[in-house]
Amino acid sequence: MAGGQITVEVQLGPDQHGWRLDRALAAAVPTLSRERIKALIRSGAVDQAGALVRDPAVKVRGDEQLTLAIPEPAAAHNEAQDIPLTIAFEDEHLLVVDKPAGLVVHPAAGNLDGTLVNALLHHCQGSLSGIGGVARPGIVHRIDKDTSGLLVVAKTDVAHEGLARQFADHSIERRYQAIVAGVPSQAKGLVDAPLARSSHDRKKVAVVKDGRGKRAVTHWQVKKIFRDASLVECRLETGRTHQVRVHMASIGHPLLGDQVYGRAPHQRVRELLQRLHFKRQALHAAELGFIHPVTKARMAFTSPLPADMQQLFTALGV
Is the dihedral of CA 263, 179, 177, 311 positive or negative? Predict the structure, then answer.
């Protein structure tokens, strides 16, 4: 870090020939959103061989070496809040959090406080990586508000960059436990279907075939069969927004309780969900594995089903 900024060297590859600059950089630096990449380009933060490139839409050749200057984050306007956290692991470089369902990961419209970031600011007292920007200090990846389970948080920029590379090359081990409607006809399977924002509803993600989508791969295996539902383990090869929810719905087995991608389950299951007041997608990030970006140790964590999913699991078996 120098001159009040974080400098990231990016080498584009031949497979990116013809891509827009903002798309290529967003793929190379997955910790930054494409919108933030666009803003950085327009502000003169991208240097190619001593010349600034300010057009996000310019097409790249695929052999460029670029320098991206990311300004140090301004003092966080997020409030540090004393929100209880379940910490599975912590050292001076990173921590692994077991997030409860209902907790938003980072502040956004409609959820300006009471988030995991607010809790982390209190817990870490300022020692969070700044690469994610003011709104998302330390956040390397996220899970949905109503999904529970494990995620890793970076306390230093070195840890953030090392973890981001592992997410980019899909070497992070992530396994989810999902309770889905119905019983799949096979014991295990693979969904390889690109995902993008739905053209009909921008709040939803959809499987697309028009070239807009990013490749998304989910390996699934049935672990327990009930009368009208199944417990399925999903291993993520990629980590797209709503990936498990959309992929399982696409093969006819949406997650129980999913208010966005679900469909009316069998009457018995519907009545059970109502009786248990289970109103979130039945999805839990149960396993997380990665190489520690500093010590290079192999890290592996597991989290049992939370109480509400365990209660649903038990009730389905009755």
Answer: positive
Query: pTM score, two decimals?
Result: 0.77
Both tokens assigned to 276: 């248990």
Per-residue pLDDT of the chain (318 residues; tens, 9 = 90+): 444 678 889 999 899 999 999 999 988 887 777 778 888 999 899 999 889 999 999 999 988 899 998 876 544 457 889 999 999 999 999 999 999 999 999 877 666 688 999 999 999 987 888 776 666 788 999 999 999 999 999 999 889 989 998 998 899 999 999 999 999 999 999 999 999 988 888 789 999 988 788 999 999 999 999 989 999 999 999 989 999 999 999 999 999 999 999 987 889 999 999 999 999 999 999 999 999 999 999 999 999 999 999 999 999 987
Q: Which of 144, 157, 258, 308 is catalytic?
A: 144
**Three-state helix/strand/coil letters over the chain:** CECCEEEEEEECCHHHCCCEHHHHHHHHCCCCCHHHHHHHHHCCCEEECCEECCCCCCECCCCCEEEEEEECCCCCCCCCCCCCCCEEEECCCEEEEEECCCCCCCCECCECCCCHHHHHHHHHCCCCCCCCCCCCCCECCCCCCCCEEEEEEECCHHHHHHHHHHHHCCCCEEEEEEEEECCCCCCEEEEECCEEECCCCCCCEEECCCCCCECCEEEEEEEEECCCEEEEEEEECCCCCCHHHHHHHHCCCCECCCCCCCCCCCHHHHHHHHHHCCCCCCEEEEEEEEECCCCCCEEEEECCCCHHHHHHHHHHCC
Strand order, beta sheet including 5-11: 5-11, 65-71, 46-48, 51-52
Tell me, yes or no, if 55 is annotated catalytic.
no
- What token pair was written down for 212? 């807009």
| Cα 252 from Cα 183, distance rounded (Å) | 9
